[in-house]
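Lecture notes, unit on protein representations.

Consider one protein chain, 325 amino acids long.
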Amino acid sequence: MKVSPLNLRANVVVPPFILARVKRTSSNPLVLHGRHFGRTVFAMCNYPALLTAGILRLEELRDSSIEDYPADVRREHRVFMELIDSYPGLVDRLTNGEEEDIIHVGELMGKGASGSRGDDTKTLKSAVLEWLVPRGQALIPPLSRNIKSDQTKQSLKSGETAVRGDQWPLCLYAGYVYDPEDPWTGLLKSEILIFGYKHVFTSPSSVDKGPKATRSGNAHLHGMKCVTKGSLAYIATQIRFAISSSSIFSRTDTVTDSENFYHSILDLLEDPDETKEVIDLMTWWTRRIFPNSSSSQRCISKNSALSKIREKRAGLRERAAMSPT
């Protein structure tokens, strides 16, 4: 008997063994971990291939350095290392298992990642329409494209002209304002991105409330204390897709070019030359989504007792360093 969402919605009686199988799969720790990892670290990933290549590369790295590999392989290996470090006992399970075991683990994690992506895509499609202000206006086009002419509109609608993933829409910018002289100004700080992040990570109801993670939110369930680069790129990709006319998210979709867009955002956030701007951006995001997560990220009042204690301690340390031993 084949069970579909229509069967369940129609209240068809489903055999208990099928329900048990569905429950076991959806609650599998590897599936659950894949859901969170895809949202927060790396979304566009073939997990069986990632794990298989990663295990083989661990053997190769005994006699070489990861810096000897191309940039795309180095990124893949960073993702692999984050994955095995985030799941206790995973590396032992993979290294001691057969190839079939590695593929099975990858398939479970991949199922979780694709499942969470599908869930978020579905809920954000309708939510984004309610967040767009003012209502009734045309959606904002990518930066380098002016769709005011009927010819350009028709070309985009027919698919004759495609918008590349590295052409970022104005909805990524605060106030939907782009400064070509300073492209960093307001980038990834728009209100709709904040709404999208809260919707996915702290719960849909938190969008209209304060930035407090609810007990049922994904951030609370997984102990998130800060916004990650991967999660910001993920939300930006979801929001961009939500304002498109496409209904099904696909990594290989050349119309939305979502995978290229996701990688272009992640490339910027991981660029060593942009470290200062990225640190400022991530701190800005964490203060808005998790304002009470870390005392190290709070500004200390200049005239507070804590600031005076630290000032005094710094003075004592400086005098001690200057005095002869």
